[in-house]
Amino acid sequence: MNDWFQLRNAALLGTDRVTFTPVAGEGLVGALLPQLPASNQEAALLAAAALYTQYQRAGFRPPQEPTPLSEPAPPDDMPLISEQAAYQLAQMLDGRFNEALPEWLAQVRAAGRRVPPQWLPRMLTHGAQQSALRLPIIQVIGERGRWLAAWQPAWQYACVTPDPAQWEVVTGAARLLLLQQIRHADPAQARTLLHSTWQSEKAEDRAAFLTCLQAGLSQDDEPFLESCLDDRSKKVRETAADLLARLPQSQLVRRMISRAQGLLTVKGLLRPTLSVTLPNELDGGAQRDGIQPGKAPAPLQLGTRTWALCQILACIPPTFWSGRWGKSADDLLTLAMRSEQNQLLLEAWRRATLRHPNSEWAFALISRGAAASELVNALPSTQRELCIMELVQARAYPDNETLFDWLRVCRQPWGVAYGRLVLSHVQQHITKPPPLDRQVWMALPEFARYFPPQLISEAQAAWQPHPETAVTWQSRLDQFMELLTFRREMLAALTAV
Amino acid sequence: MYSEANDTAVADIAAPMPKTPPPAWSPEQVAALAPDASSRKAAEGLASPHKWLSLGQEATDQGAKFLWGECQGSGSNMYQTAVALAEPAFHCSCPSRKFPCKHALALFLLFSRQPQQLPDASPPEWVITWRDNRAARATKAATKNNPPTTGAASQAKRAAKRAQTIANGLDELEQWLQDLIRRGLATAQSQPYAYWQTMAARLVDAQAPGLAMQVRQMAGLVNSSARWEERLLHRLALQYLLIQAYRRLETLPPERQADIRAAVGWSVKQEDVLAGSGARERWLIIGRRLEEEEGLRIQRTWLWNPQRSQPALILEYAYGGQTLDISLLPGHELEAELLFYPGSVPLRAICKTRFTQLRPFSHLPGHPTQATAVVQFNGMVAQNPWLGLAAFPLAQVVPVRDSSGSYLYDAAQNRLPIASLFAHSWELLALSGGHPIDLVAEWDGAAWLPLSVWADGRLALLS
User: Fold this and answer.
1) Distance (Å, whole) CA B173 – CA B236
2) pLDDT by residue (tens digit) across B190-209?
3) CB pairs under 8 A between A and B
4) Which member of B181, B431, B435 has the closest CB to residue A118?
5) I want to staple B34 with a disulfide (CB 3.0 to 4.6 A). Which of A332, B39, B258, B271 is the partner?
């Protein structure tokens, strides 16, 4: 009996090994087999195969296989971005202008829109590779994106909804993102959730989760953080102490103030001086509050007692001292610079200003040589540009290198006033005769990410390179204008409905 | 003066078509013309005025516009690039084998975003040369429609000679097939690529390129996974059937003769197809697939007649820098006169006349179940055993994924596989979200190859 499977097996082994004779088989097709004209075995096999092939192909019926379907994605309320915006996204995912992607994501989120489904796989893969973009990506993928993320292990980070019920369900990196999102929406709820599972979390997770509380930190967090000072893990204790040191009203800050009692004094009315007394023995609670014993870690060159005082002062809001002595930040830092302990005081107040951001203190510290980036970026985003603009206008920079370092500090799209400031300083360098300033040349691609696109024609008109350096500038300027043009179109596509 | 390497040769449908461009080309539409992502990216990089040494555009009295520009290439090279918007057709003096090349795309993109950057001017010498050459070729192609009365005898002689060459090639192929069966298909797996390649080359020599391509495809088949031996046997059997059929060609009805000639690769001349006439009908452009094989690019543009639920295939081949017509944009519809190649099943077609401009269609009608699409395909295969595939719109199917692969599933509980070579299964899953969706896919008798999905009121292409 010949049927298709015998035929197939004969063909697989070859007629050298298996003899093939067409005999009538089952059904209508089988009955036709002996009638096929064939001069030899091979021809007979091929002819029979042709008959079966055509029979199978023309008579194919799709199998009916009841298949359980996975839960479909819930409906999305958020509207989609425009087709043009989707195309620009595709360009960025292709690697062109991808430096504009963070701004794009922020704008899409601000507009309350979402990425079209077709682009979600690439968007999710991008986030899998760039962890810094995960949170902004999660915010623009909608329900469809969260649903899709469950299908690939690498996309797991994105499959959580900011739903507290998920806290004990999800695992791995997704929990950190979940906590971040909940903290963003409802700080108290995030703290309660964390507290509820605190005892069963691993030490490294506890430290990482605790770090999330820095966002939306408030006095309400104090009791929980205070309890963390007695945690088994050193990393957790340090993180808790750091967070408490950021709360001006916390018990920890008060304890630090009492530790500093009598150690800093201002003497003299006409020519006041700031004198420093180093602490002797530290109280037993100091270490619990995060004060590390021993000498300062490199590169700081502070001895044991100096380092202890530095750490104490670093917890106290600098405005406390302004209030106590009725002196401005600038006055106090002038006194500090004259003191023998100027290294200690500058470092301690720099650290304190990072924890208790204050633009007056930041200004005074930076103009005395403290690195600008950290201090400015600790300020609320609305104050950063202003701080740099004031520093530049006060001509507080010792050299051009510092000036351009400062101009690079604000890493977010700039306002028009700040843009004009950068525009004019770049112009001075572009139009002057050689030698060419490499630093400005190097900074341009970065400026293009934040420069306000509405100033594009002003920049084009103003930035006319000196003839002798024009060749070197041209490609940089072209790249600058290209990215800026792209950003202008990108923003227009996102604001148009 | 300039190389013809990347010039627009006369494509399948270049000749007598009064073409009307889409109302306006958006940058997204232009970018969709790119042959691949890297070309798109490169073109975006060149799509700004300062990359061009000169730029210009011209509106001719037919209303068709030409764009041109000179682009600074790497090193000292300067490339001359032109676009005829009506089709669109492209010309570039660069040596790229991509089509359209990044320069032509960039010029088009630049125009779509900032048309004012291309000043209105009279075209330079080299654009005129290109335009005139194109016109001359179009005229030549058009005059071919009226075959010369003399020379019929020599034409018949040539045809007889080709018929004999093919017959000889088929004899050789039959021997090869029988050899393969004698030694067994199991031995085929260990054959080097040259084993298939040599036979394919003989068939090219025998002027049977259709068969040659099938043999080349077998080389890939033996290394594919599931049921390769059955799929190979199907292919071999159909080739054997074709050989037998070709030998009795004269005894068969004309449509079947046409099927056999087409399967062998002895195509009917375009001008012979264009000599006929067809009805003005509404056609939806539902999908496009570009494949590349040994430097040959094959483009299948699928049209759908919603009144008669019939697919039509605009099939084009291009070697190297030859052009493919990309003006039939999926997602759009038009009223057109389509002429079908002869055969027992009308499928492959040429668009002879476009009566309307392309406009996006607002609804994709589809087969209610996969079974009805398969039955339609079966009917076509019953008429023409060598018909390889056809595209169908399917309504309300759910893409399903499991550890064994991807499938389409429908309300009738039909479950059919998606081809393993399908590269966009994540996009498909994302577009469906686990819900039923309307889509367009090619069916080859064994698996679906999705081409496009109806999503958010438009056709999203999976390419």
Assistant:
1) 10
2) 888 899 999 999 999 999 98
3) 178
4) B431
5) B39
φ, ψ dihedrals at A35, nearest 5°: -85, -5
Contact B209, B229 (CB under 8 A): no
What is the per-residue pLDDT for B142?
A: 57
Helix axes A470-495 and A438-450, enclosed angle (nearest 10): 10
Residue A450, phi-psi category: left (phi > 0), alpha (psi -120 to 50), beta (remainder): alpha
Amino acid at A443: A
Which residues 436-495 on chain A approach chain B with CB closer than 8 angstroms? 478, 481-482, 485, 489
Q: If DSSP codes are grouped into helix, strand and coil, which group holds residue A308? A: helix
* Helix spans in B144-188 (H): 152-183
Among A42, A146, A487, the residue to mutate for chain B (most B Cβ within 10 A): A42
Q: Do A53 and B382 touch (CB under 8 A)?
A: no
* Minimal Cβ distance to A67: which of B50, B181, B409: B409
Residue B402 buriedness (CB in 10 A; 0-12 / 13-18 / 19+): exposed
Percent of chain B whose pLDDT exceeds 70: 90
The two tokens of residue A127 are 């986030």
Say how far apart CA A431 and CA A236 lie, in whole Å: 54
Residues B278-286 have a mean pLDDT of: 96
Among the partner residues B37, B379, B385, nearest to A94 by beta-carbon distance? B37
Record the tokens describing residue B283, joined without a space: 């056609």
Q: What ipTM was predicted for this assembly?
A: 0.80
In chain B, whose CA is at the least distance from the CA of A50? B237
pLDDT tens digits for range A391-407: 999 988 988 889 999 99
Closest partner CB to A46 (pick from B181, B371, B374): B181
pLDDT at position A233 over 50: yes
pTM (2 decimals)?
0.80
H/E segment holding residue B285: strand B280-293
